[in-house]
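Issue 218. Parser rejects a valid record. Input:
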Amino acid sequence: MRFMMIVKANKDYEAGQQPSPALMEAVGKLSQEQMKAGKLLMAEGLLPSSAGARIYVSGGELSVKDGPFSETKELVGGFAIIEAASLAEAIEDGRRFMQLHAKLLGPSYVGQLEIRPIAGPDDPCR
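Output the parser choked on:
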């Protein structure tokens, strides 16, 4: 089963600050390990919301708002698509990823990773 891991943005991300080299190295190592194991299918970081736009629909009309967007808790900083046998396994993979952040960025780091199953052709919500 495939899962999407959605890494939430924070103030530093939105300000365009680059992650620490130690964190990037650790994430790269974990990513390579997960790719070799056939678990990591795709992963990318996103640029801050100032480089993007949102399209809204209301009353049948479309409107576009350019970034930046004020609510960082609603922003996605990056994503990964993984293969896991269950949600429990996907959660364990996500914990490993977030543990790198906690370990390398210290107790002041606040972050969030959302894990969602990717709908397949046999899912009841389709």
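Fixed in the parser; the record now loads. DSSP finds three helices and six strands in the chain.
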